[in-house]
Write a sequence for this structure.
């Protein structure tokens, strides 16, 4: 990654004003957690060309082809409504893919961005002492997904075009900062923006947690980020923590 190019394209005040680029690391989220507390300022971005132990939600791994994707962690130290962060990342990525690249993508609760019903981006939010780590992965130029190919894809695989990761990342970080400011004043506006991409609402979905799995009708997402589903004529409010959602049943 060319960090000088990213810095040139950034219009932010705080986010990405310091970038730590690593050719290879186990996970940018782990690296962020291990930063000496004295060297942390809000908005630092840890960026890697490859992760040997990339982390996903629900103790899954996040795999990547070296040099192909966006793998970054944004470190935040200010008070922020943490449950909104996956939605903020989702909007930032979905807008970049939909508006700039003119590709129709969708968001799946709570933190996925899909292109042609396959995942291109996910977010892993973690808290460590008093810092918040926002890990974002976007599959940009990766070509092989092996056994994951029915579920995951990249911008390249859907368009046969290579994309410049630096421009995509700078645009995503620029929008991330704007949305972070918006979130301080209006939670509902964040959820409204996100819902524009949430085409699964109104559809049957499969909800899986550690204990159970059931189909339900996805009804709405509240301003706090909870998913409301209808199951056997009763409404359930779901917290994102341990739940996986499948659409296109
Ligand atoms: C998910 O969808 O399960 C979340 C995926 C998050 C992946 C990103 S890549 C950069 C950051 N570092 C990690 O180890 N994970 C996140």
């Amino acid at each position: 990654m060319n960090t000088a190019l990213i810095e040139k394209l950034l219009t932010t005040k705080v986010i990405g004003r310091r970038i730590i680029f690593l050719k290879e690391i186990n996970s940018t989220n782990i690296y962020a957690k291990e930063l000496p507390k004295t060297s942390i300022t809000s908005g630092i971005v840890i960026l890697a060309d490859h992760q040997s132990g990339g982390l996903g939600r629900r103790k899954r791994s996040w795999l990547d082809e070296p040099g192909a994707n966006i793998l970054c962690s944004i470190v935040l130290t200010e008070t922020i409504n943490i449950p909104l962060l996956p939605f903020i990342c989702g909007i930032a990525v979905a807008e970049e893919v939909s508006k700039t690249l003119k590709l129709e993508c969708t968001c799946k609760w709570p933190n996925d961005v899909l292109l042609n019903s396959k995942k291109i981006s996910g977010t892993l939010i973690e808290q460590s002492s008093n810092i918040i780590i926002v890990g974002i992965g976007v599959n940009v130029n990766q070509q092989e997904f092996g056994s994951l190919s029915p579920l995951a894809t990249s911008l390249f695989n859907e368009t046969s075009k290579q994309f410049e990761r630096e421009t995509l990342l700078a645009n995503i970080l620029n929008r991330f900062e704007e949305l972070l400011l918006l979130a301080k004043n209006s939670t509902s506006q964040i959820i409204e923006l996100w819902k524009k991409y949430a085409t699964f609402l109104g559809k049957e979905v499969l909800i899986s947690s550690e204990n159970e799995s059931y189909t339900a009708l996805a009804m709405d997402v509240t301003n706090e980020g909870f998913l409301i589903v209808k199951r056997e004529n009763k409404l359930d409010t779901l917290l994102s923590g341990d739940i996986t959602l499948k659409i296109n049943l």
About this structure: The longest strand covers residues 118-128.
